[in-house]
């Protein structure tokens, strides 16, 4: 839009301003007086209040001329003044009060518009003669039309101004004769031009697929900004890369041609073949350039997105198949096939997806029946270590497409979807699309020039400064690079440094730009002011920034972006620790007066550092909250370790544990269960046994502390460790790998949905029908709100029975939730039917339904839940039934603990009843926990005091029914049902001690919560004392917890 306005108003001397310019009001005042057009660029969602009089056209007459008051000054208003405003925001939301003052135009490029533009580019590069002829024709045609219009105007003027008989008006006759000659001449030219245009269009038509294909690629990279605000790419950058790719592919093409074919007979190049070469070359070139600026977690996702978008545009991937991959077939009717009995490995969720898949793809129409008939063959796929490499039974090995096989994998083994996606990209696009280019500073530098900033996007634990300074030395700029770490008050210094660098050709590095968000508009202005005329060509501006929405979009779109993440895995992490200061410093490493003690404990500490960082990959079973432990924690801990060992005769293990576990690393830890895990780990490493020979850091003995040696010997030992660590290295069960893989699959599908992949092109009509069907179904199933007054009459507030109050309060909470759900559903029904306006809130509910998720509007008033929409509604109805039965049939003998909205009030009521019945103070009583049988149906009468509860699940371990204690999980079983529990209130002094693990009970598998105003966590409920015959530290390292509700 900016370019178009500047071209259109160039002859009228257009004035270009920005709100960041110091003198923009002065420029505006002058333009208003002299009638010049003004373009105001890059506004945000709020417009400057000083523009108000202008936008409202508050004109008034003063001394016979029209005037306007702008700021404090009154200026004359010229009729020729024009005002244009543009924004570079991707999806701005302007309030109605702004929208009524301006004319809003969406200048976002469309798929067809971009296809045409890229068609022009490719024809201009491949057939410049055609494009030049076409451009000339367009100009001539416009010129001819303009002359025709002028002639018509002159004729009309002549006819209207002639008086008396027209035939007597010789001047008029002459004008008409002249007009006729010119008109005939133009008509002839237009006929020739139209014939030529048809020829050109026919030649251009051959190149059309190229424009359409590459426009799909641009829209794919444009959608990446939904994933991370730093993933922004401009159209001009894209077209520049496209042009370079066309030339590079032409050169490669010529190099590939055999010599004998380049003889006298110039071989007619097959156009289809040439377009294929351009497409392949450009797709890979784009992949390489974009991959450089993506985080590791998004690289495979980008390849997959490219692959699926290309296939969809070519009609090779039906949208309903892609939507099934994202959502598991939400809203699709399931085929009615009973789930095979006695097959524990087939979960209800898996069978639900398989039966919906049968109605999504014709090729799988009989899949549920085939699985039921040949369970063992499909069980083999389920049990395989690498199921993505196995061949499916029967025709399913050959008939389905590569993508359809992915859908089966999603149903049977969702934990292996990521490697299956990897294989899918390999087979459809080629191996090079799953091998991202390595970090290449030289390559990025070659792509840049003095006016292009280079930006490192930072992630936890990455610091590219050392690599850049080394590269500067190699490029002969070691002494010519100025470095400033951004922060408060550093902006003006940075501006001076950039100005100096521009003039002298120095390099400038601004670190951590995300810490100076208020200075970012100034940086944007400085970058826009850098051009070839006023800048030394040796100058380079290097920036580092963590992802931040405040970072200027123009720099992101036009700069060269790079990411450089630390390598993954325990081995790579430990190697990195040993190559960092101070451990890498020979003098420091050998400088301790007790070298054996220091080096062994230093190795143990490097293991702990890798442990705490790499354990984050396992999600909530690793750490409740993923803390940003970094190199600074390790550096201070290593220095303290040497100091404590040097200054004490005996190694002060307690002091080391406290300094490391409570201060350095522990200073970041906010969750007490995470603190327990951290201290358990440090107890394991900081102990006298760690100084003995071959001390094991993991149960299997894969990781041990090596004997004292040189720095090199430790690096050699680290190199012998496995590249990919097993979960046991982190004290976790082998099942934790499945949890981690499922987390990666969930992250991939949710990120694809964020990228705007879901529902795109799914057909507006079908989506509305789907949501309308879901909405009606939920409305039909919702019971009416509870009658609180009737409940309070039947169960009045009584001193000795607190449970009556709990019942009424729970029903009130559920009523609040039911009202919101019912109201939003009824409004959504009307909006879909076109009877009311679809508001922004309703649109969010609509979009959530379309992908089978619970709307944020409900979750704001709901109990915590990670379930998808279908399971959430089932769970809600079960909870409502619990309280309805309680009201109709009296207090249950055993309570489903997961059904409560606010569980602490329920457990407190049980303690309160006991305390009041025995005249004890409430803070002197607590629960004794007795583990009972698995079947809640056995308990038909309530206990005399206390409560029976059921409905808990074990994560990280299983429950031994015979011994009634914790035991190891079974393979592939992530969650095991827990036993019924008798919560027996007793005096705190009477609670019996026995060997137990204090097991945290959480409401959902997310584990982390926030403290509510009541002082309770929104997720953590209580500590349950679970009997065990092994050290409780073992279960703490396993991340063992009990959960009230699962994800599905």
Give the termini separation: 48 Å
Number of E strands: 22
Percentage beta strand: 5-15%
Number of helices: 38
Rough outline:
globular
* Strand order in the largest sheet: 8-9-10-7-11
Q: How big is the Rg?
A: 36 Å
Taking the sheet with the most strands, its summary is:
5 strands, parallel
The poorly predicted ranges are 258-268, 758-764
Global structural class: alpha/beta
Instruction: Please tell me the overall pLDDT.
Output: 89
| Portion of residues within helices | 40-55%
Overview of this structure, please?
This protein is α/β, with parallel strands linked by helices and 1048 residues long. Helix content is 49%, strand content 10%. The strands form six sheets. A five-stranded parallel beta sheet has the order 8-9-10-7-11, sandwiched between helices. β1, α2 (24-34) and β2 form a beta-alpha-beta unit. α23 (570-578) runs antiparallel to α29 (711-719), α31 packs antiparallel against α33 (803-833) and α33 (803-833) packs across α34 (840-850). The longest helix is centred in the N-terminal third of the chain and has 36 residues, at 170-205. The two termini are 48 Å apart. 31% of the residues are buried. Mean pLDDT is 89; it is low at 258-268 and 758-764.
Key traits:
five-stranded mixed sheet, 38 helices, globular
């Amino acid at each position: 839009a900016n370019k178009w306005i500047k071209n259109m108003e160039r002859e009228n001397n257009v004035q270009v301003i920005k709100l960041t310019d110091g003198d923009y009001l002065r420029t505006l005042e002058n333009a208003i007086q002299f009638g010049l057009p003004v373009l105001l660029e890059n506004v945000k969602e709020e417009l400057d209040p000083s523009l108000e009089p202008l936008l409202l056209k508050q004109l008034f007459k003063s001394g016979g001329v029209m005037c306007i008051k702008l700021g404090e000054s009154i200026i004359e208003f010229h009729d020729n003044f024009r005002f244009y405003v543009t924004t570079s925001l991707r999806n701005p939301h302007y309030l109605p009060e702004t929208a009524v003052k301006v004319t809003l135009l969406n200048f976002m490029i469309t798929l067809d518009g971009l296809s045409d533009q890229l068609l022009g580019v490719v024809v201009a590069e491949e057939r410049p003669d055609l494009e030049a002829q076409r451009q000339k024709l367009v100009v001539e045609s416009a010129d001819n039309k303009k002359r025709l219009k002028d002639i018509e105007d002159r004729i009309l003027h002549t006819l209207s101004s002639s008086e008396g008989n027209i035939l007597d008006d010789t001047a008029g006759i002459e004008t008409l004769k002249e007009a006729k000659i010119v008109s005939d001449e133009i008509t002839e030219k237009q006929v020739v031009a139209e014939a030529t245009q048809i020829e050109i269009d026919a030649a251009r038509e051959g190149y059309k697929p190229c424009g359409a294909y590459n426009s799909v690629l641009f829209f794919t990279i444009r959608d990446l900004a939904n994933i991370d605000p730093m993933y922004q790419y401009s159209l001009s950058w894209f077209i520049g890369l496209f042009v370079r790719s066309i030339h590079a592919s032409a050169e490669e093409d010529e190099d590939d041609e055999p010599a004998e074919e380049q003889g006298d007979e110039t071989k007619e190049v097959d156009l289809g073949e040439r377009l294929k070469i351009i497409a392949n070359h450009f797709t890979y070139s784009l992949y390489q350039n974009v991959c450089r600026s993506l985080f590791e977690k998004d690289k495979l996702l980008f390849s997959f997105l490219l692959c699926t978008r290309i296939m969809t545009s070519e009609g090779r991937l039906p949208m309903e198949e892609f939507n099934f991959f994202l959502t598991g077939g939400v809203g699709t009717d399931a085929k009615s096939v009973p789930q095979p009995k006695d097959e524990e490995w087939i979960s209800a969720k898996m069978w639900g997806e398989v039966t919906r898949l049968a109605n999504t793809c014709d090729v799988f129409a009989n899949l549920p029946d085939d699985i039921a008939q040949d369970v063992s063959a499909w069980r083999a796929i389920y049990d395989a270590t690498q199921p993505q490499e196995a061949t499916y039974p029967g025709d399913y090995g050959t008939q389905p497409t590569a993508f359809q096989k992915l859908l089966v994998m999603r149903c049977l083994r969702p934990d292996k979807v990521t490697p299956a996606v990897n294989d899918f990209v390999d087979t459809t696009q080629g191996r090079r699309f799953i091998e991202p280019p390595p970090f290449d500073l030289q390559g990025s530098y070659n792509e840049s020039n003095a006016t292009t900033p280079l930006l490192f996007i930072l992630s936890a634990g990455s610091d590219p400064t050392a690599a850049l300074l080394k590269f500067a030395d190699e490029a002969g700029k070691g002494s010519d690079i100025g470095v400033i770490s951004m922060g408060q008050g550093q902006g003006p210094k940075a501006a001076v440094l950039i100005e100096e660098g521009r003039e002298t050709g120095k390099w400038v590095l601004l670190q951590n730009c995300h810490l100076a968000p208020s200075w970012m508009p100034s940086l944007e202005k400085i970058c826009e002011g850098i051009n070839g005329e006023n800048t030394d060509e040796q100058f380079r501006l290097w920036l580092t920034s963590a992802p931040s929405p405040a970072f200027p979009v123009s720099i992101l779109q036009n700069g060269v972006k790079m990411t450089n993440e630390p390598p993954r895995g325990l081995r790579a992490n430990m190697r990195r620790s040993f190559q960092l200061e101070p451990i890498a410093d020979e003098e420091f490493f050998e400088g301790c007066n007790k070298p054996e003690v220091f080096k062994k404990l230093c190795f143990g500490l490097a293991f702990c550092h890798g442990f705490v960082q790499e354990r984050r990959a396992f999600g909530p079973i690793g750490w409740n909250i993923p803390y940003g432990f970094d190199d600074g924690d390790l550096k201070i801990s290593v220095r303290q370790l040497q100091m404590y060992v040097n200054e004490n005769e005996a190694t002060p293990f307690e002091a080391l544990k406290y300094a490391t576990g409570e201060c350095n690393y522990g200073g970041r830890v906010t969750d007490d269960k995470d603190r327990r895990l951290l201290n358990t780990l440090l107890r394991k490493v900081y102990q006298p046994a760690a100084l003995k020979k071959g001390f094991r850091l993991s149960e299997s003995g894969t990781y041990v502390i090596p004997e004292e040696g040189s720095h090199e010997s430790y690096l050699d030992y680290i190199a012998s460790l496995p590249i990919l660590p097993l979960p046991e290295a982190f004290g976790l069960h082998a099942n934790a790998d499945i949890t981690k893989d499922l987390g990666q699959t969930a992250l991939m599908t949710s990120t694809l949905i964020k990228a705007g992949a879901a529902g795109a092109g799914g057909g507006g009509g079908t989506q509305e029908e789907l949501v309308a069907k879901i909405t009606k179904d939920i409305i039909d199933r919702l019971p009416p709100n509870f009658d609180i007054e009737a409940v309070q009459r039947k169960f009045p507030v009584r001193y000795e029975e607190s449970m009556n109050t709990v019942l009424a309060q729970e029903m009130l909470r559920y009523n609040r939730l039911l009202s919101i759900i019912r109201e939003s559903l009824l409004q959504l029904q009307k909006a879909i039917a076109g009877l009311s306006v679809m508001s922004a809130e309703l649109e969010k509910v609509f979009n959530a339904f379309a992908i089978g998720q619970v709307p944020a509007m409900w979750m704001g008033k709901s109990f915590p839940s990670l379930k998808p929409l279908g399971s959430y509604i089932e769970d809600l109805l079960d909870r409502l039934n619990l309280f309805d039965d309680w009201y109709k049939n009296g207090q249950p003998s055993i309570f489903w603990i997961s059904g409560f909205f606010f569980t602490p009030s329920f457990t407190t009521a049980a303690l309160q009843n006991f305390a009041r019945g025995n005249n004890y103070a409430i803070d002197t009583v607590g629960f004794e926990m007795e583990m009972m049988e698995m079947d809640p149906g056995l308990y038909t009468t309530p206990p005399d005091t206390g409560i029976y509860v059921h409905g808990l699940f074990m994560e990280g371990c299983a429950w031994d029914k015979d011994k009634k204690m914790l035991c190891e999980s079974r393979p592939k079983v992530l969650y095991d049902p827990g036993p019924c529990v008798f919560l027996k209130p007793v005096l705190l002094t009477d609670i019996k001690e026995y060997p137990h693990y204090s097991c945290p009970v959480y409401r959902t598998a997310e584990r982390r919560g926030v403290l509510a105003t009541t002082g309770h966590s929104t997720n953590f409920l209580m500590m349950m004392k679970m009997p065990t015959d092994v050290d409780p530290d073992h279960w703490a390292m396993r991340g063992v917890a009990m959960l009230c509700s699962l994800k599905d």
